[in-house]
Amino acid sequence: MRFSKVNYNLTPFSSYIRKDALFSEMLTEKDLLVSQIKTSNQELLSSKEMLLQEMSMDRVRSASLQRELEETTQLLGVVKQLLKEKEAVIELQNFDGRLMEKVVTSDEQSQTDDSQEYIRSLEMECERLREIEKIASEKDALLKEGQKLQNILEMELQIAKAEALTEKEKKIAEEAVWEEVKQGLSTEIQALNMHLLELQRSKEEEQASANQNFEMTKMALEAKIKESEEEIKKKDEEIKVALKKQSSMVKELRRQVQSEKKRAEQAEKHLDDVLGVGDANVYTHNSARIRVAGSPSALSDRFKMKGDGESSICSWAFVAEPDRNSFQNFDEESSCSASILEADNAELISHLAVLQKKHAETIDRLNIIEEENALLRKEVEEKSEVIAQWIRTIPDSSQNPQVANSSPGLRFRRMLEMVRMGESAADIRDMNRRLQRMLEETLSKNLVLQKNIQTLLEKDGN
Protein backbone atom coordinates (compact mmCIF):
# COMPACT_ATOMS: atom_id res chain seq x y z
CA MET A 1 0.00 0.00 0.00
CA ARG A 2 1.46 3.37 -1.06
CA PHE A 3 0.65 6.76 0.49
CA SER A 4 0.53 10.02 -1.41
CA LYS A 5 2.97 12.67 -0.23
CA VAL A 6 1.37 15.71 1.48
CA ASN A 7 2.77 19.19 0.88
CA TYR A 8 2.37 21.65 3.80
CA ASN A 9 2.31 25.18 2.36
CA LEU A 10 2.13 27.27 5.56
CA THR A 11 2.26 31.04 5.16
CA PRO A 12 5.32 32.81 6.67
CA PHE A 13 4.99 34.74 9.90
CA SER A 14 7.30 37.59 8.88
CA SER A 15 4.42 39.95 8.02
CA TYR A 16 2.79 39.18 11.35
CA ILE A 17 6.04 39.96 13.20
CA ARG A 18 6.41 43.23 11.23
CA LYS A 19 2.90 44.25 12.27
CA ASP A 20 3.77 43.50 15.87
CA ALA A 21 6.86 45.71 15.54
CA LEU A 22 4.75 48.54 14.10
CA PHE A 23 2.28 48.09 16.94
CA SER A 24 5.12 48.35 19.49
CA GLU A 25 6.43 51.51 17.73
CA MET A 26 2.97 53.08 17.90
CA LEU A 27 2.78 52.23 21.59
CA THR A 28 6.17 53.88 22.17
CA GLU A 29 4.90 57.01 20.38
CA LYS A 30 1.87 56.95 22.63
CA ASP A 31 4.14 56.70 25.68
CA LEU A 32 6.11 59.72 24.45
CA LEU A 33 2.89 61.71 24.05
CA VAL A 34 1.80 60.69 27.54
CA SER A 35 5.17 61.86 28.92
CA GLN A 36 4.75 65.19 27.09
CA ILE A 37 1.28 65.59 28.58
CA LYS A 38 2.71 64.83 32.03
CA THR A 39 5.43 67.47 31.60
CA SER A 40 2.83 70.04 30.49
CA ASN A 41 0.74 69.16 33.54
CA GLN A 42 3.77 69.66 35.76
CA GLU A 43 4.41 73.06 34.16
CA LEU A 44 0.78 74.02 34.74
CA LEU A 45 1.07 72.95 38.38
CA SER A 46 4.23 75.05 38.79
CA SER A 47 2.47 78.06 37.23
CA LYS A 48 -0.47 77.51 39.58
CA GLU A 49 1.92 77.46 42.54
CA MET A 50 3.48 80.73 41.36
CA LEU A 51 0.02 82.28 41.09
CA LEU A 52 -0.82 81.07 44.60
CA GLN A 53 2.36 82.66 45.91
CA GLU A 54 1.50 85.93 44.17
CA MET A 55 -2.00 85.78 45.62
CA SER A 56 -0.57 85.28 49.11
CA MET A 57 1.73 88.28 48.54
CA ASP A 58 -1.27 90.35 47.41
CA ARG A 59 -3.17 89.27 50.49
CA VAL A 60 -0.24 90.35 52.70
CA ARG A 61 -0.17 93.70 50.91
CA SER A 62 -3.90 94.15 51.33
CA ALA A 63 -3.56 93.33 55.05
CA SER A 64 -0.79 95.93 55.41
CA LEU A 65 -2.92 98.49 53.54
CA GLN A 66 -5.84 97.75 55.83
CA ARG A 67 -3.57 98.32 58.83
CA GLU A 68 -2.47 101.64 57.36
CA LEU A 69 -6.12 102.57 56.83
CA GLU A 70 -6.86 101.77 60.46
CA GLU A 71 -3.90 103.88 61.54
CA THR A 72 -5.10 106.75 59.34
CA THR A 73 -8.59 106.46 60.84
CA GLN A 74 -7.05 106.61 64.30
CA LEU A 75 -5.06 109.66 63.21
CA LEU A 76 -8.27 111.24 61.93
CA GLY A 77 -9.83 110.70 65.36
CA VAL A 78 -6.82 112.29 67.02
CA VAL A 79 -6.96 115.20 64.54
CA LYS A 80 -10.63 115.72 65.32
CA GLN A 81 -9.82 115.83 69.01
CA LEU A 82 -7.06 118.34 68.29
CA LEU A 83 -9.51 120.47 66.33
CA LYS A 84 -11.84 120.43 69.27
CA GLU A 85 -8.96 121.47 71.53
CA LYS A 86 -8.08 124.22 69.04
CA GLU A 87 -11.60 125.54 69.20
CA ALA A 88 -11.36 125.49 72.99
CA VAL A 89 -8.03 127.37 72.79
CA ILE A 90 -9.59 129.97 70.50
CA GLU A 91 -12.39 130.41 72.98
CA LEU A 92 -9.79 130.81 75.74
CA GLN A 93 -7.96 133.42 73.64
CA ASN A 94 -11.18 135.35 73.25
CA PHE A 95 -11.76 135.04 76.96
CA ASP A 96 -8.19 136.24 77.60
CA GLY A 97 -8.75 139.26 75.37
CA ARG A 98 -11.80 140.13 77.29
CA LEU A 99 -9.94 139.71 80.54
CA MET A 100 -7.14 141.95 79.22
CA GLU A 101 -9.66 144.64 78.43
CA LYS A 102 -11.07 144.32 81.90
CA VAL A 103 -7.59 144.49 83.41
CA VAL A 104 -6.77 147.66 81.41
CA THR A 105 -9.91 149.33 82.63
CA SER A 106 -9.26 148.36 86.28
CA ASP A 107 -6.87 150.06 88.53
CA GLU A 108 -3.35 149.59 87.36
CA GLN A 109 -1.78 150.42 90.59
CA SER A 110 -3.63 148.07 92.87
CA GLN A 111 -3.45 145.07 90.64
CA THR A 112 -0.07 145.39 88.91
CA ASP A 113 1.41 142.31 90.50
CA ASP A 114 -1.61 140.19 89.79
CA SER A 115 -1.82 141.45 86.20
CA GLN A 116 1.81 140.66 85.50
CA GLU A 117 1.41 137.14 86.80
CA TYR A 118 -1.78 136.76 84.83
CA ILE A 119 -0.06 138.11 81.69
CA ARG A 120 2.72 135.61 82.11
CA SER A 121 0.24 132.79 82.41
CA LEU A 122 -1.57 134.09 79.33
CA GLU A 123 1.71 134.19 77.37
CA MET A 124 2.36 130.60 78.37
CA GLU A 125 -1.10 129.67 77.19
CA CYS A 126 -0.50 131.52 73.89
CA GLU A 127 2.68 129.57 73.28
CA ARG A 128 0.80 126.44 74.07
CA LEU A 129 -1.93 127.42 71.64
CA ARG A 130 0.67 128.09 68.93
CA GLU A 131 2.12 124.60 69.43
CA ILE A 132 -1.41 123.16 69.24
CA GLU A 133 -1.98 125.05 65.95
CA LYS A 134 1.25 123.56 64.53
CA ILE A 135 0.12 120.09 65.59
CA ALA A 136 -3.30 120.71 64.01
CA SER A 137 -1.69 121.78 60.71
CA GLU A 138 0.50 118.67 60.75
CA LYS A 139 -2.59 116.55 61.46
CA ASP A 140 -4.40 118.18 58.54
CA ALA A 141 -1.50 117.27 56.25
CA LEU A 142 -1.53 113.73 57.62
CA LEU A 143 -5.28 113.48 57.05
CA LYS A 144 -4.84 114.61 53.45
CA GLU A 145 -2.09 112.02 52.93
CA GLY A 146 -4.28 109.33 54.56
CA GLN A 147 -7.17 110.17 52.23
CA LYS A 148 -4.83 109.99 49.25
CA LEU A 149 -3.51 106.61 50.43
CA GLN A 150 -7.05 105.39 51.01
CA ASN A 151 -8.04 106.38 47.48
CA ILE A 152 -4.93 104.66 46.05
CA LEU A 153 -5.69 101.51 48.06
CA GLU A 154 -9.29 101.50 46.88
CA MET A 155 -8.13 101.80 43.26
CA GLU A 156 -5.59 98.99 43.70
CA LEU A 157 -8.21 96.78 45.35
CA GLN A 158 -10.61 97.39 42.47
CA ILE A 159 -7.87 96.54 39.93
CA ALA A 160 -6.93 93.40 41.88
CA LYS A 161 -10.58 92.33 42.03
CA ALA A 162 -10.98 92.84 38.28
CA GLU A 163 -7.81 90.84 37.58
CA ALA A 164 -8.95 88.11 39.96
CA LEU A 165 -12.29 87.91 38.15
CA THR A 166 -10.55 87.65 34.77
CA GLU A 167 -8.20 84.97 36.12
CA LYS A 168 -11.19 83.08 37.54
CA GLU A 169 -12.92 83.18 34.18
CA LYS A 170 -9.76 81.96 32.45
CA LYS A 171 -9.35 79.19 35.00
CA ILE A 172 -12.96 78.12 34.51
CA ALA A 173 -12.42 78.01 30.73
CA GLU A 174 -9.19 76.04 31.16
CA GLU A 175 -10.92 73.61 33.52
CA ALA A 176 -13.71 73.09 30.99
CA VAL A 177 -11.14 72.40 28.26
CA TRP A 178 -9.28 70.00 30.56
CA GLU A 179 -12.50 68.18 31.40
CA GLU A 180 -13.30 67.81 27.69
CA VAL A 181 -9.79 66.49 27.03
CA LYS A 182 -10.08 64.08 29.96
CA GLN A 183 -13.44 62.81 28.73
CA GLY A 184 -12.07 62.33 25.22
CA LEU A 185 -9.01 60.50 26.50
CA SER A 186 -11.09 58.33 28.83
CA THR A 187 -13.43 57.36 25.97
CA GLU A 188 -10.47 56.60 23.71
CA ILE A 189 -8.81 54.54 26.46
CA GLN A 190 -12.03 52.60 27.03
CA ALA A 191 -12.32 51.95 23.30
CA LEU A 192 -8.70 50.78 23.19
CA ASN A 193 -9.27 48.49 26.17
CA MET A 194 -12.37 47.01 24.52
CA HIS A 195 -10.44 46.54 21.31
CA LEU A 196 -7.60 44.87 23.18
CA LEU A 197 -10.06 42.55 24.93
CA GLU A 198 -11.57 41.64 21.56
CA LEU A 199 -8.09 40.97 20.19
CA GLN A 200 -7.27 38.77 23.17
CA ARG A 201 -10.50 36.85 22.70
CA SER A 202 -9.85 36.41 19.00
CA LYS A 203 -6.29 35.24 19.76
CA GLU A 204 -7.58 32.76 22.32
CA GLU A 205 -10.19 31.49 19.86
CA GLU A 206 -7.56 31.16 17.15
CA GLN A 207 -5.28 29.29 19.52
CA ALA A 208 -8.11 26.99 20.55
CA SER A 209 -9.04 26.33 16.91
CA ALA A 210 -5.37 25.76 16.01
CA ASN A 211 -5.00 23.35 18.92
CA GLN A 212 -8.17 21.52 17.87
CA ASN A 213 -6.98 21.33 14.28
CA PHE A 214 -3.58 20.14 15.45
CA GLU A 215 -5.21 17.45 17.61
CA MET A 216 -7.42 16.40 14.69
CA THR A 217 -4.40 16.13 12.39
CA LYS A 218 -2.53 14.25 15.09
CA MET A 219 -5.44 11.81 15.51
CA ALA A 220 -5.67 11.33 11.74
CA LEU A 221 -1.94 10.72 11.45
CA GLU A 222 -2.01 8.31 14.38
CA ALA A 223 -4.91 6.45 12.75
CA LYS A 224 -2.97 6.27 9.48
CA ILE A 225 0.11 5.05 11.32
CA LYS A 226 -1.95 2.38 13.07
CA GLU A 227 -3.46 1.28 9.75
CA SER A 228 -0.02 1.10 8.15
CA GLU A 229 1.31 -0.89 11.13
CA GLU A 230 -1.62 -3.29 10.89
CA GLU A 231 -0.99 -3.71 7.15
CA ILE A 232 2.70 -4.33 7.83
CA LYS A 233 1.75 -6.95 10.41
CA LYS A 234 -0.59 -8.61 7.92
CA LYS A 235 2.16 -8.65 5.29
CA ASP A 236 4.58 -10.12 7.83
CA GLU A 237 2.06 -12.83 8.68
CA GLU A 238 1.54 -13.58 4.97
CA ILE A 239 5.31 -13.82 4.49
CA LYS A 240 5.58 -16.16 7.47
CA VAL A 241 2.76 -18.36 6.09
CA ALA A 242 4.44 -18.43 2.67
CA LEU A 243 7.76 -19.39 4.24
CA LYS A 244 6.05 -22.13 6.23
CA LYS A 245 4.41 -23.45 3.06
CA GLN A 246 7.75 -23.30 1.26
CA SER A 247 9.49 -25.21 4.06
CA SER A 248 6.72 -27.84 4.08
CA MET A 249 7.05 -28.27 0.28
CA VAL A 250 10.83 -28.65 0.59
CA LYS A 251 10.37 -31.26 3.31
CA GLU A 252 7.88 -33.20 1.17
CA LEU A 253 10.24 -33.08 -1.83
CA ARG A 254 13.16 -34.33 0.28
CA ARG A 255 10.99 -37.13 1.62
CA GLN A 256 9.98 -38.13 -1.94
CA VAL A 257 13.66 -38.10 -3.04
CA GLN A 258 14.63 -40.35 -0.15
CA SER A 259 11.76 -42.76 -0.89
CA GLU A 260 12.79 -42.93 -4.58
CA LYS A 261 16.41 -43.56 -3.59
CA LYS A 262 15.27 -46.43 -1.39
CA ARG A 263 13.18 -47.87 -4.25
CA ALA A 264 16.17 -47.63 -6.63
CA GLU A 265 18.42 -49.42 -4.16
CA GLN A 266 15.83 -52.16 -3.65
CA ALA A 267 15.51 -52.58 -7.46
CA GLU A 268 19.29 -52.89 -7.85
CA LYS A 269 19.44 -55.51 -5.14
CA HIS A 270 16.62 -57.45 -6.77
CA LEU A 271 18.37 -57.34 -10.19
CA ASP A 272 21.64 -58.51 -8.66
CA ASP A 273 19.85 -61.43 -7.08
CA VAL A 274 18.09 -62.40 -10.34
CA LEU A 275 20.95 -62.05 -12.82
CA GLY A 276 23.81 -63.36 -10.72
CA VAL A 277 27.40 -62.37 -10.79
CA GLY A 278 28.69 -64.20 -14.09
CA ASP A 279 30.09 -62.59 -17.19
CA ALA A 280 28.28 -59.28 -16.85
CA ASN A 281 28.11 -56.16 -18.95
CA VAL A 282 27.52 -53.02 -17.07
CA TYR A 283 25.44 -50.27 -18.49
CA THR A 284 24.88 -46.98 -16.87
CA HIS A 285 21.86 -44.87 -17.57
CA ASN A 286 20.91 -41.74 -15.64
CA SER A 287 23.19 -42.79 -12.72
CA ALA A 288 21.47 -46.24 -12.47
CA ARG A 289 23.77 -49.36 -12.78
CA ILE A 290 22.33 -52.48 -14.66
CA ARG A 291 24.35 -55.73 -15.11
CA VAL A 292 23.56 -57.94 -18.22
CA ALA A 293 24.85 -61.58 -18.94
CA GLY A 294 23.88 -64.72 -20.91
CA SER A 295 22.06 -65.14 -24.22
CA PRO A 296 20.46 -62.60 -26.51
CA SER A 297 17.04 -63.51 -25.19
CA ALA A 298 18.21 -62.77 -21.74
CA LEU A 299 19.66 -59.54 -23.03
CA SER A 300 16.40 -58.59 -24.62
CA ASP A 301 14.64 -59.47 -21.39
CA ARG A 302 17.18 -57.43 -19.55
CA PHE A 303 16.78 -54.58 -21.96
CA LYS A 304 13.07 -54.80 -21.33
CA MET A 305 13.81 -54.61 -17.63
CA LYS A 306 16.09 -51.73 -18.38
CA GLY A 307 13.36 -49.99 -20.37
CA ASP A 308 10.93 -50.50 -17.49
CA GLY A 309 13.47 -48.93 -15.13
CA GLU A 310 13.99 -46.06 -17.46
CA SER A 311 10.26 -45.57 -17.76
CA SER A 312 9.91 -45.56 -13.98
CA ILE A 313 12.82 -43.15 -13.58
CA CYS A 314 11.50 -40.97 -16.39
CA SER A 315 8.03 -41.06 -14.92
CA TRP A 316 9.48 -39.96 -11.57
CA ALA A 317 11.43 -37.24 -13.37
CA PHE A 318 8.31 -36.10 -15.22
CA VAL A 319 6.39 -36.14 -11.96
CA ALA A 320 9.12 -34.17 -10.16
CA GLU A 321 9.54 -31.55 -12.92
CA PRO A 322 6.15 -29.80 -12.34
CA ASP A 323 6.92 -29.77 -8.63
CA ARG A 324 10.24 -28.09 -9.36
CA ASN A 325 8.54 -25.57 -11.67
CA SER A 326 5.92 -24.80 -9.03
CA PHE A 327 8.67 -24.43 -6.41
CA GLN A 328 10.58 -22.02 -8.68
CA ASN A 329 7.39 -20.03 -9.37
CA PHE A 330 6.66 -19.89 -5.64
CA ASP A 331 10.21 -18.71 -4.98
CA GLU A 332 9.87 -16.01 -7.61
CA GLU A 333 6.48 -14.91 -6.23
CA SER A 334 7.78 -14.84 -2.66
CA SER A 335 10.87 -12.84 -3.74
CA CYS A 336 8.65 -10.39 -5.69
CA SER A 337 6.25 -10.01 -2.76
CA ALA A 338 9.19 -9.51 -0.38
CA SER A 339 10.67 -6.79 -2.65
CA ILE A 340 7.25 -5.10 -2.90
CA LEU A 341 6.85 -5.25 0.86
CA GLU A 342 10.32 -3.81 1.37
CA ALA A 343 9.53 -0.97 -1.05
CA ASP A 344 6.20 -0.30 0.69
CA ASN A 345 7.92 -0.39 4.08
CA ALA A 346 10.58 2.05 2.86
CA GLU A 347 7.89 4.38 1.52
CA LEU A 348 5.94 4.11 4.77
CA ILE A 349 9.05 4.85 6.80
CA SER A 350 9.93 7.85 4.62
CA HIS A 351 6.33 9.08 4.83
CA LEU A 352 6.38 8.68 8.61
CA ALA A 353 9.65 10.61 8.80
CA VAL A 354 8.18 13.42 6.66
CA LEU A 355 5.06 13.50 8.82
CA GLN A 356 7.14 13.60 11.99
CA LYS A 357 9.21 16.47 10.60
CA LYS A 358 6.08 18.38 9.63
CA HIS A 359 4.57 17.62 13.01
CA ALA A 360 7.68 19.01 14.72
CA GLU A 361 7.57 22.09 12.48
CA THR A 362 3.91 22.71 13.34
CA ILE A 363 4.70 22.30 17.05
CA ASP A 364 7.58 24.80 16.75
CA ARG A 365 5.34 27.26 14.93
CA LEU A 366 2.62 26.88 17.55
CA ASN A 367 5.20 27.50 20.28
CA ILE A 368 6.41 30.62 18.46
CA ILE A 369 2.82 31.86 18.11
CA GLU A 370 2.16 31.22 21.80
CA GLU A 371 5.32 33.10 22.78
CA GLU A 372 4.35 36.03 20.55
CA ASN A 373 0.85 36.06 22.04
CA ALA A 374 2.33 36.04 25.56
CA LEU A 375 4.60 38.97 24.66
CA LEU A 376 1.66 40.87 23.16
CA ARG A 377 -0.38 40.26 26.29
CA LYS A 378 2.46 41.51 28.48
CA GLU A 379 2.84 44.64 26.35
CA VAL A 380 -0.91 45.30 26.43
CA GLU A 381 -0.97 44.88 30.22
CA GLU A 382 2.01 47.21 30.65
CA LYS A 383 0.45 49.85 28.40
CA SER A 384 -2.89 49.59 30.21
CA GLU A 385 -1.09 50.01 33.55
CA VAL A 386 0.79 53.05 32.21
CA ILE A 387 -2.46 54.59 30.93
CA ALA A 388 -4.20 53.90 34.25
CA GLN A 389 -1.32 55.48 36.18
CA TRP A 390 -1.37 58.47 33.85
CA ILE A 391 -5.13 58.88 34.41
CA ARG A 392 -4.60 58.64 38.15
CA THR A 393 -1.74 61.16 38.13
CA ILE A 394 -3.71 63.77 36.11
CA PRO A 395 -4.33 66.64 38.59
CA ASP A 396 -7.94 67.50 39.41
CA SER A 397 -8.31 71.15 38.51
CA SER A 398 -11.64 71.46 40.36
CA GLN A 399 -9.92 70.85 43.72
CA ASN A 400 -7.16 73.45 43.15
CA PRO A 401 -7.86 77.02 44.29
CA GLN A 402 -8.36 79.82 41.81
CA VAL A 403 -5.28 81.93 41.22
CA ALA A 404 -4.72 85.40 39.79
CA ASN A 405 -1.78 86.49 37.71
CA SER A 406 -1.34 89.83 36.09
CA SER A 407 1.93 89.25 34.23
CA PRO A 408 1.59 89.14 30.40
CA GLY A 409 4.51 86.68 30.08
CA LEU A 410 2.65 84.01 32.04
CA ARG A 411 -0.48 84.58 29.98
CA PHE A 412 1.46 84.12 26.76
CA ARG A 413 3.05 80.94 28.18
CA ARG A 414 -0.40 79.60 29.06
CA MET A 415 -1.66 80.32 25.57
CA LEU A 416 1.30 78.37 24.16
CA GLU A 417 0.60 75.48 26.54
CA MET A 418 -3.06 75.41 25.46
CA VAL A 419 -1.98 75.28 21.80
CA ARG A 420 0.46 72.44 22.60
CA MET A 421 -2.26 70.54 24.46
CA GLY A 422 -4.58 70.87 21.45
CA GLU A 423 -1.82 69.57 19.14
CA SER A 424 -1.05 66.66 21.51
CA ALA A 425 -4.77 65.72 21.67
CA ALA A 426 -4.93 65.75 17.86
CA ASP A 427 -1.77 63.60 17.69
CA ILE A 428 -3.30 61.15 20.20
CA ARG A 429 -6.46 60.88 18.11
CA ASP A 430 -4.44 60.26 14.95
CA MET A 431 -2.41 57.62 16.76
CA ASN A 432 -5.58 55.92 18.02
CA ARG A 433 -6.97 55.85 14.47
CA ARG A 434 -3.74 54.31 13.18
CA LEU A 435 -3.85 51.73 15.96
CA GLN A 436 -7.43 50.83 15.07
CA ARG A 437 -6.47 50.39 11.40
CA MET A 438 -3.48 48.28 12.36
CA LEU A 439 -5.59 46.08 14.63
CA GLU A 440 -8.16 45.60 11.87
CA GLU A 441 -5.39 44.57 9.47
CA THR A 442 -4.00 42.08 12.00
CA LEU A 443 -7.47 40.61 12.52
CA SER A 444 -7.97 40.19 8.77
CA LYS A 445 -4.54 38.54 8.46
CA ASN A 446 -5.35 36.23 11.35
CA LEU A 447 -8.58 35.21 9.59
CA VAL A 448 -6.63 34.52 6.39
CA LEU A 449 -4.12 32.41 8.36
CA GLN A 450 -6.97 30.48 9.98
CA LYS A 451 -8.49 29.77 6.54
CA ASN A 452 -5.12 28.58 5.23
CA ILE A 453 -4.71 26.26 8.23
CA GLN A 454 -8.19 24.85 7.66
CA THR A 455 -7.41 24.18 3.99
CA LEU A 456 -4.15 22.47 4.97
CA LEU A 457 -5.97 20.32 7.50
CA GLU A 458 -8.54 19.36 4.86
CA LYS A 459 -5.68 18.38 2.53
CA ASP A 460 -4.15 16.30 5.31
CA GLY A 461 -7.50 14.56 5.89
CA ASN A 462 -7.77 13.78 2.20
Automatic annotation (TrEMBL):
InterPro entries in alphabetical order: GRIPAP1 (IPR026204)
UniProt superkingdom: Eukaryota
GO cellular component: extrinsic component of postsynaptic early endosome membrane; glutamatergic synapse; postsynaptic recycling endosome
Entry coiled-coil feature ranges: 189-270, 352-386
Alphabetical UniProt keywords: Coiled coil
Keyword Chloroplast among UniProt keywords: no
Gene Ontology process terms (BP): neurotransmitter receptor transport, endosome to postsynaptic membrane; regulation of modification of synaptic structure; regulation of neurotransmitter receptor transport, endosome to postsynaptic membrane; regulation of recycling endosome localization within postsynapse
PANTHER family: GRIP-1 ASSOCIATED PROTEIN 1 (PTHR18978), GRIP1-ASSOCIATED PROTEIN 1 (PTHR18978:SF1)
Protein name stated in the entry: Uncharacterized protein
Source organism phylogeny: Eukaryota, Metazoa, Ecdysozoa, Nematoda, Chromadorea
